[in-house]
Amino acid sequence: MAIGFGGYLFKSDSIRTQIQKESQGSKVLSISAKRLSNITLSGPTITEQKKIVEFFIALDTKIEILQNQRDSTKSFKKGLLQQLFV
Hints:
By secondary structure, the chain is mostly helical. 67% of the residues lie in helices and 0% in strands. It is built from four helices and no strands. It has helices spanning 5-9, 13-22, 33-36, 46-84. The radius of gyration is 21 Å and the shape is elongated.
């Protein structure tokens, strides 16, 4: 498994559903190594995994940039409104 791919794989609905089925506990869920081994992991080749990881890293970076731009725009708007109504 390519570095970083596992994190994205374990966020997928199919893997999360399998983990929830194998988890035990009434208030705090836990899963043993033996039960964890019952989970089926399937994925693309290492080369494809690396490309997927690169894509998601770029996507996460773009999302972070857009969030920062949004925050800056909100601050700018707030400043303009304060100047307008003084």
